[in-house]
Design goal:
Layout (H helix, E strand, L loop, with lengths): L1 E7 L16 E6 L3 H13 L3 E4 L12 E5 L1 H13 L3 E6 L2 H7 L19 H14 L4 E8 L5 E7 L7 H9 E5 L5 H9 L52 H12 L4 E9 L3 E4 L11 H19 L4 E4 H4 L7 H8 L4 E6 L14 H22 L2
Parallel strand pairs: 1-8, 1-9, 9-12, 10-11
Antiparallel strand pairs: 2-4, 2-5, 3-4, 6-7, 7-8, 10-12
Protein name: Carboxypeptidase A3
GO biological process, one term: proteolysis
GO molecular function: metallocarboxypeptidase activity; zinc ion binding
Length: 383
């Protein structure tokens, strides 16, 4: 039996947190040459720049759109430095705290209950998984695949046969199983709701460092240490002390290994940039079935655009976004799953990580068109 495993690797979550970001700004800069790229890198050495795109300083290069967050205290100095060096820039967000609060622009139907139109905290997500099991026992089951470092459960939902109104989904679920991990970085997700909105890593302690957390999407055993500057425990892209050092990573890899003979495709969801990515991230070498992956990605992005004309680009991670090592996508591909994809969802930077709730349903509708296409393609072209 064939199945899809969509896993959401949560880089950030969306909620108002006790740490405030009043008058913090998000800049977008496009360095015209390597000299200007080096200026950004130098500014990062003397100022606390939180890179939104790319994910770290060392990825910054000429002719690349670079988005970063800066504190109110340092924003004027950053702006002056950019002006002095005649660099092209715009301020995407003038007050980060204001944008955080503005993104919750959908009224709750029933207070305290999970909503498909809103951002939901961990408690609501767990309650939703229980509701799905109770409401559709013949279709949905829940599997605990492990626990986090703070002993929160990692749940996977298994969706199988259904006879509903949606003919396409009914046909797909008659012929394949979907395994869905709603939240991978549960501890980090909870922390971003309760303590710090901009938190990205998990919450594991690091030896010989006061800094907390590992970037789970740098912790898989896929050329784990080949990209420089991922060995700082205080950095948001810290790869961990070893491949699969984190409980969350180990739980996911163990689950996939135990189901490897069934899994035909692996899909992860991130934000932001509007991209559909496939291997590799750790090398410029193309995978053996590159043409097939590119074909699926091209048609998938075309299908996605038919709903709201949202335009995605597609390609290998390394050349389309930036080089990364230790990603789940490359790991799953090297393990033997020959169709692996990562969606970088809306938008292209106007909202960045702060996509308003009013954009959730349109994003889901168009993305599901692409997911359904990929699933149908797998059914038709794999044995």
């Amino acid at each position: 039996m064939r199945l899809i495993l969509p896993v959401g690797l949560i880089a950030t979550t969306l909620a108002i947190a006790p740490v405030r970001f009043d008058r913090e700004k998000v800049f977008r800069v496009k360095p015209q040459d390597e000299k200007q790229a080096d200026i950004i890198k130098d500014l990062a050495k003397t100022n606390e720049l939180d890179f939104w795109y790319p994910s770290a300083t060392h990825h910054v290069a000429a002719n690349m759109m670079v988005d970063f967050r800066v504190s109110e205290k340092e924003s004027q100095a950053i702006q002056s430095a950019l002006d002095q060096n005649k660099m092209h820039y715009e301020i995407l967000i003038h007050d980060l705290q204001e944008e955080i609060e503005k993104q919750f622009d959908v009224k709750e139907d029933i207070p305290g209950r999970h909503s498909y139109a809103k951002y939901n905290n961990w408690e609501k997500i767990v309650a939703w998984t229980e509701k799905m099991m109770d409401k559709h026992p013949e279709m949905v089951s829940r599997i605990k695949i492990g626990s986090t470092v703070e002993d929160n459960p990692l749940y996977v939902l298994k969706a199988t046969k259904t006879y509903g109104r949606n003919k396409i989904m009914t046909k797909l679920l008659d012929q394949m199983n979907f395994y869905i991990l709603p939240v991978f970085n549960v501890d980090g997700y909870i922390w971003s709701w309760t303590k710090s909105r901009m938190w990205r890593k998990n919450r594991s302690k690091n030896q010989n460092s006061k800094c907390i957390g590992t970037d789970l999407n740098r912790n898989f055993n896929a050329s784990w240490n080949s990209i420089p500057n991922t060995n700082d425990p205080c950095a948001d892209n810290y790869r961990g002390s070893a491949p699969e050092s984190e409980k969350e990573t180990k739980a996911v890899t163990n689950f996939i290994r135990s189901h490897l003979n069934e899994i035909k495709v692996y899909i992860t969801f991130h934000s932001y940039s509007q991209m559909l990515l496939f291997p590799y991230g750790y090398t410029s070498k193309l995978p053996p079935n590159h043409e097939d992956l590119a074909k699926v990605a091209k048609i998938g992005t075309d299908v996605l655009s038919t709903r709201y004309e949202t335009r995605y680009i597609y390609g290998p991670i390394e050349s389309t976004i930036y080089p990364i090592s230790g990603s789940s996508l490359d790991w799953a591909y090297d393990l033997g799953i020959k169709h692996t994809f990562a969606f970088e969802l809306r938008d292209k930077g106007k909202f960045g990580f702060l996509l308003p709730e009013s954009r959730i349903k349109p994003t889901c509708r168009e993305t599901m068109l692409a997911v359904k296409f990929i699933a149908k393609y797998i059914l038709k072209h794999t044995s």
